[in-house]
Amino acid sequence: MGRTLQNTMINLGLQNACDEAVYQLGLDMEELEEIEEDAGLGNGGLGRLAACFLDSMATLGLAAYGYGIRYEYGIFNQKIRDGWQVEEADDWLRHGNPWEKARPEYMLPVHFYGRVEHSASGAKWIDTQVVLALPYDTPVPGYMNNTVNTMRLWSARAPNDFNLRDFNVGDYIQAVLDRNLAENISRVLYPNDNFFEGKELRLKQEYFVVAATLQDIIRRFKASKFGSTDSVRTVFDSFPDQVAIQLNDTHPAMAIPELMRIFVDIEKLPWDKAWDITRRTFAYTNHTVLPEALERWPVDLVEKLLPRHLQIIYEINQRHLDHIASLFPNDVDRLRRMSLIEEGGTKRINMAHLCIVGSHAVNGVAKIHSEIVRTQVFEDFAALEPEKFQNKTNGITPRRWLLLCNPGLAELIAEKIGEDYVRDLSQLTKLHEFVDDDLFIREVAKVKQENKVKFALYLEKEYKVKINPSSMFDVHVKRIHEYKRQLMNCLHIITMYNRIRRDPAKLFVPRTVIIGGKAAPGYHMAKMIIKLINAVAQVVNNDPMVGSKLKVIFLENYRVSLAEKVIPATDLSEQISTAGTEASGTGNMKFMLNGALTIGTMDGANVEMAEEAGEENLFIFGMRVEDVSELDRKGYNAQLYYDRLPELKQAVDQIKSGFFSPKDPNLFNDVVNMLFHHDRFKVFADYEAYVKCQEKVSELYLNAKAWTKMVIRNIAAAGKFSSDRTIKEYARDIWHVEPSDLKIPPPNEPRDAGQDKTPNGTAA
């Protein structure tokens, strides 16, 4: 979520008043804003997307709730020591959190372990361990519409009789100390992005958020006029018409068997009725096609932790496979491929398959990704129910990612096309009229230059390096992962360095290359990549032959509040994943909206950015998805590229020989070995096209006016990538609710009693 203060002032229309009031007190608002900690309660793009969605849902007046876990420790703080990443705990609640309100009156029990007892009256889950879920509510204000939604985060609490009730052997002190075991559930965020780690505590976290949330949703449904009670029993027929639940990846997949458990075991609905309601309630968003990221939980772990849920999953699977067998008799391989249970070695539950079978809609997050989901990853399921599969291209909130972080540009745009674009970003197309307006071109360039100077001062203060603000700011910020190919950027840096040294007199367009991002603590290769970037920076930044022509900076502890500083100052945005691996990306959209040009592959939302702006207004290079498949078919041989490309050979040899690590010449052996023998992401195959494309970038940068005109064309084409547009599509195509552009009256105005200002419909 990042910081909340400035976002709240902007959405409430109070920023200028607050700035003034604080100034009158002899204080500086910006200084005050810098004191607030980031709420870093998620990993990479998945968590940030949810935050943008919350802002858009409130701005569109949807009755929507965001549910999650109130981690005591969020994503780790990254320190760079001697070029290596070192993790520190993110004690973000140390000084309290003024934005949250604990709601002990809504505390709910969550059960673990135990056993299942079957009787005539049905199944009973008994002898369980109970953990309490305490909700904390954070307000989510819409933009200038007097709507405030809620983000409800659950914290784990041990019940007061924990370890004292049943098997108490008199060790009262130990029993109280053991309360930590229960409360550890919400202690810390698992820091993996695009990687599955099958740990018991992680499964506990996933079930914890799901069980608490579903109880909360059902309580709210029963309290509403829709949960009409026949004598005692609630009628749930209208449930899917009043409730929509969107599963953000497979992490909350246990919600499907949990809702079935509630309906069948507790509410005593017949299975078929319960299953129909469940499927019509859930929809699933897939966020990655990397096989190592797909959640596959061991059956024995689920059996121990959630025995009733395993039985329900088996029953869902049996009925699912019976249905497929009736449509495709004797096709045992299809049954194996489509089963929720993967046999062979340790039996595992494929959570993506559970989500597809248990949902009425499945979507990818960019056109190309949704296509891959439909035709490759889940092709068997798409053949069965083609109408279930959709695309919903991701977006970003223009409130945080333009108004908040780039007020200079936001104001400049408002002067030309009015202020309405903030709520309807498609209006940015009106900027096309000003592409040839010399004054506007100069003003856009001036805003960018001011942002660069401000960021350069920040870098000098934080990193003690002198930055040339007229150099091209070439920025690559995102989680560190092999598929995102920070290594390819690194090879380009080395190539530029070698070119400067080979011919120091030759004209060279000065660059400041900024790379930033966190590596998962257990991801060895990603940590080596960070070390390599820092080792290269050490050499480049201290070579007198290079001077101010080339500087390399590794941005420490990349997070939302740092993104808000670096993105507005960026000239060139690096979006260089291997085609077919980045589901969408959202950083790409933030850079586009803030006046950077993109160098990128035809991957994720880059494809649609090129479609909107015209491919000639992005620097597109490298293999397309088809080329990658073809290369896989032929077999990728890295050695061929190394032998054929002298500059690539030189760069790789320098890494290999210890040119960048003279004290330990073998330091980067693992990296070099990977590049030659098991590089799934084919860095060498795109190297030549990348370097040539970078030459075109430098050439255009020399022509400031042509560069800025291309920037304006990009900003004018960025309207599609508002999360408001994304959420409108979810609302209409999946949740079946109408967004309301109604500004509800402020609390100080009496409401018209005759009018119901709350549009009826689903709560998402």
Automatic annotation (TrEMBL):
User: Which residue spans traverse the membrane?
Assistant: none
* Glycosyltransferase as UniProt keyword: yes
Q: GO: which molecular function terms? A: glycogen phosphorylase activity; pyridoxal phosphate binding
Q: Where is this region: Disordered?
A: 738-764
**Keywords on record:** Allosteric enzyme, Carbohydrate metabolism, Glycogen metabolism, Glycosyltransferase, Phosphoprotein, Pyridoxal phosphate, Transferase
Do you know which Gene3D superfamilies this protein is assigned to?
Glycogen Phosphorylase B
Q: Which domain of life is it from?
A: Eukaryota
Look up the record and report any one GO term of the cellular component aspect: cytoplasm
Residues bearing N6-(pyridoxal phosphate)lysine?
K590
Task: Give the EC class as a word.
Answer: transferase
Describe its partners and assembly state: Homodimer; enzymatically active. Interacts with PPP1R3B; recruits the phosphatase PP1 which dephosphorylates and inactivates PYGL/glycogen phosphorylase.
- Give the protein family: Belongs to the glycogen phosphorylase family.
As for what it does, the entry says: Allosteric enzyme that catalyzes the rate-limiting step in glycogen catabolism, the phosphorolytic cleavage of glycogen to produce glucose-1-phosphate, and plays a central role in maintaining cellular and organismal glucose homeostasis.
* Entry-linked NCBIfam families: P_ylase
Supply the name of the protein.
Alpha-1,4 glucan phosphorylase
**Upper lineage:** Eukaryota, Metazoa, Chordata, Craniata, Vertebrata
| Gene that this polypeptide is encoded by | Pygl
